[in-house]
């Protein structure tokens, strides 16, 4: 029967597995799974309906990274990770686990809000439509999610608890002695009792309410402050550092980002920097992701040093305190808060022209330079190749080790986001400082002895000398000398001296900055914060949560120029005066009082910081999560000392955004006793990307990939030759392939198999629609091995398989088991294919034990056809919870293996021997072989080296 004539095939094989048959089977089984609750995971206290049955199976918690429901829908690249976790979760169910696997939606975000700005349509409308569309697309793939546990971050029942967590963080501080978060009330009690001194030296009772709020604001884990922020007029909001690209533009929309000073909410994630670093060691994460987090946190050891200036001090952080005697000037970040304070009215006498930037006064010079720096990204400001720019502030500070007066500059290569925003410049031993010193005609003093022949007269050098393995020179004062010491010893000596003089101390610094948590948008969680008549922030009590978003007439921020750094935000919420100004009784004993609501909203990252907890107990209206349920699914256990999700799959692009933020929230909740797991995700796996060919015309514009004609290795669109390149898949590149298109032509099981068979899960791979048919044919051959295509009758026989088939079967079982456990789905499919082909080639009816095992092997990968065949084989229960086959070790090992026999290092014989043969037996067999006897030719034997069962090496005498 020819497979090239579909019409003939349909007549001759009316019961053939076709796309139409697949569609009918898949829809029917999806309906069955939903009605039956097949994928419901049972909590330790019973199911979500509240019965009290106990869980006897071990648990397995499998998660995907939160999807954002795009209005454009899914293309075939999106479900790669979802199919992978579904396969793994199904395998875990079949190996005796109680599996929690579900999917919610991270639904607050800019795309829906930008659509609302353009159309006036409420973002909830478009978001919910996108969610429903995505649910439909994912359902068609047969994903085994526990749908009772699904939710969206925009559900008030969900963001009530996001707001509640914010309140816990707001009402907490980090106790450095206990190395954990504690309730802010404990800190207040210490101030009241005098156990802890109040900053500034006054008693707690002597402070006004506003002064007390200011003191506590310096400790709270969530606090508001006036600070330089990344202001993006094009989006009408501020952005976290992690949301700004390397070229100083917004990650979303590619708008210019400027530095501006605004009052914003922050999360004191820096308090957890050490723990965030140390606990990485216990996580089963890709080393590349761990390295990105370590680099982002950026721990460095050094010293803080005070440089006196006008009766106060500029504090710097340095990792090279051993070079203090070489500091010849200072540089502050343009945004440094002390710049204006120490900038004099006129230039000091003798100021170099090159220092002033051509400005008449220091104030003019500073203002002009600040405006220039505000338009640059942090990466641009620190670029090594760029010309060094800056301006003298007109002030001088004192180098504390030698009393020298050194000029204070501002320059854009110093950032407020690292250290203290001020550096001591040692141009002889820092490349950037050297370039700056040359540009501004500043002195260069050698204090680290060069190992080359340049000498110690730094004025003659062409570049800085940087070494951590050299002697210190020219570094001595009245009561301290570092001359002759190595770097390590010099650091220790000068650090001790600084501490003794109370002008510095050894310290640790981090690159990590506090998390900017405010957004000037509508479509986000409202802050559960109100301000009283004195401007003091108060958190709402739990009884007032959730605080829901009000209706507004205009979703856009105030009119702005996207290229103007001086525009400032006016949020959509601030224009709803009836919502902003309220009278409330907060239950603090003061009775009803007038308040003003916070009009910023939380960033879209807030909802994804804790969603792994909501999946556990999604309908709990009394608690964040029931402690017993959280302990069961996520608590610490053997091999997982910090607890967390057993498998978390998603893209590597979230290394320092979502993953770092979620870890921080988990640690705060753990410290406060709300959960037992200080880490949210124990095992992390990053799937690769499905790529697609992009075809571009002579203008460089993408043209539809579906309209491309290939001729003699060239590609044409409407007769014009086009260029092909490999890139992302997406609507804008006109190369997107929808899951529906593949399902219509081949069925969802084929799509699932193809995506899993394309290559290793963690490697990017190109999509090729023409190759999908290979997995379709696999399923057709599987179907034929069980079902007669002409009659629809089951063809398996109740007989024992021959030994050759048994060996093929159990080798497949053993290999597929290992591959599915290790997420090697492509090789698992290859082993199933090999077994299926073996059965096809025999031409005989398949023995029932083999057919049933084959169906069970493919069930995690192609669940719909597996359910159908399992039912046709006479079973009345679902294949989902059947036991996965276990290999018989007798049939897994080869009957014989090849042993190589060497004489004088050369191969003289190959023997087929038992895999279980002993060294002694193998030696006897090898020495008796006629080829070996001939090779020895009567010579004696000095040594025989045996490595059973594969090698014998004979050394003649």
Overall mean pLDDT score? 92
3D shape: globular
Strand content: 15-25%
Q: Uncertain runs with pLDDT below 50, 5 residues or more?
A: 1-8
The N- to C-terminal Cα distance equals 67 Å
Largest sheet, described in full?
Answer: 6 strands, mixed
CATH evolutionary superfamily of one domain: Valyl/Leucyl/Isoleucyl-tRNA synthetase, editing domain
What is the C-level CATH assignment of one domain? Answer: Alpha Beta
Query: Can you name the CATH architecture of one domain?
Result: Alpha-Beta Complex
Q: Helix share of residues?
A: 25-40%
Structural class: alpha+beta
CATH topology of one domain: Isoleucyl-tRNA Synthetase, domain 2
- The helix tally amounts to 30
Q: How many β-strand stretches?
A: 31
Radius of gyration: 35 Å
Quick synopsis:
With 957 residues, the chain is of the alpha+beta class. The chain has 30 helices and 31 strands.
Question: Explain this structure to me?
Answer:
The chain has 957 residues and is an alpha+beta fold. Mean pLDDT is 92; it is low at 1-8. Strands 22, 23, 24, 25, 26 and 27 form a six-stranded mixed β-sheet that branches. Strands 2-1-20-21 form a four-stranded parallel β-sheet, sandwiched between helices. Among the domains are: 299-510, Isoleucyl-tRNA Synthetase, domain 2; 894-956, Ubiquitin-like (UB roll).
